């Protein structure tokens, strides 16, 4: 079926973000006004980073966005009704667009939202963005990809670019339940807990015991007695969260960012206990990651974070910019509990290039690490201590989804 281009959603102009209004105010007034009778939006989408120093609300119609994803060049979301929405900024120097990349106090990029049209009868339930491509999953378990075909990351059996979503035909015999994109590779899991990988293979990130690229899905061997529940992709590495809440990982373990070093205590591992790379999925061996039930994890450029069933957050990997949240920039290969989050039950964590975002059960949004160009959602330049991000919301809200990529964050609230 021929695909139609992305249809524009009317542009909405928003003022720059201010501080969060007290959550003690009654529900139903967020973004609306009791005097004018304008109803509040069903959800709000915020972005920061790349020069946007405080949360900027993105334009969209009165729809509820339930999941978001960010890539190097794209921002995408899935609505409650199963439509794919994307936010784009005009290119540098375009009419109405900024003359310089990023943003300043006086100039914010003017984002435009667009729906993916032409997908009659297709309901999207999950989207994931790579650096230059996007993958989406339908409610029927079908994966579609579009964008750059470099490294074979579209999974179509070639390296050809595709401008509109195209079905990954090699997976039509399976019902897929989740898809995740790294910078240039993809992992997907089926309802039978089979895992497939394709795209760039450097560092063993595909878990196929090879460094080769694959332009079509290849089934991954999962260690015995482990059942895949969710897949996570980083720049040059991958993770599987198992049904028993354990971490399996492959790819680059630089600075022990995958927790593959053999660590049983708080002491640094000896050289023979350090693992620099794994080409097949391997159980995390760094305590306490191999002892605590892990319910959420994310991989940044050189560090990762994991959330336990009790709501504690552990970080591991590079700490060059304080992204581990240890109140310092001292490097350590040992996973650390983020003590600055004590008293907050963490539910979701996301990692950027050198910063971390944690979401609390009560809607708290905390960031730490490198602060340059707005990475932390406030004007701090850098901090190894978790601090809150202020959203322009006028009643209690729930964070429904968060995604980080390179120096950017995308956040959905309702």
UniProtKB/TrEMBL annotation:
The family database entries (InterPro entries) matched by this protein are listed as: RCC1-like_dom, RCC1/BLIP-II, Reg_chr_condens, STK_NEK
Q: Where are the RCC repeats?
A: 141-192, 193-244, 311-362, 363-414
Q: Provide the GO MF annotations for this entry.
A: ATP binding; metal ion binding; protein serine/threonine kinase activity
Gene Ontology cellular-component terms for this entry are: cilium; cytoplasm
Listed GO biological process terms: animal organ morphogenesis
This entry's Enzyme Commission designation comes to: 2.7.11.1
Highest taxon of source: Eukaryota
Q: Which SUPFAM superfamilies match?
A: RCC1/BLIP-II (SSF50985)
Q: Where in the cell is it found?
A: Cytoplasm
Q: Which cofactor does it need?
A: Mg(2+)
Family to which the UniProt record says this protein belongs = Belongs to the protein kinase superfamily. NEK Ser/Thr protein kinase family. NIMA subfamily.
Supply the PANTHER family for this chain.
PROTEIN CBG16200 (PTHR44535), SERINE_THREONINE-PROTEIN KINASE NEK8 (PTHR44535:SF4)
Task: Output this protein's name.
Answer: non-specific serine/threonine protein kinase
Please give the organism. Ceuthmochares aereus
